[in-house]
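Morning!

This is the sequence you dropped in the shared folder:
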Amino acid sequence: MPETSDQPTIVTLNAVSKSYRRGNQPVPVLEGISFEIARGEFLALMGPSGSGKSTLLNLIAGIDTVDSGTIVIDGVDLATLNESEMAAWRVIRVRRPVTSRALMTTPSTAGSSSRLVASP
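The structure's back. Tokens below.
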């Protein structure tokens, strides 16, 4: 990984935990996750199905909330934003790519090649 310590931190997760419920049973998805991402740093998020990748992205994007811990994005602690402020913050700050599930391959007009398009 390239050295990025001279760049300011844009994403900070500190002891983030998230669980969901299946009936009366809590199902832990993320437990005590902590890391930082420097401005300009590129990362890949990989893991098997059900390992919490989408949950982590939803938390960082402010789509979901943590059970415990803190998420700070470019100096803003997401837990301090009310619903209206969070919606406004997402419009300005979040650019979430389309997940592969929403993509389909279609033939292009060139014939043998194909292109990806987002499905509705």
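Headline: Residues 19 and 28 are 4 Å apart (CA to CA).

More detail when I'm at my desk.
O.
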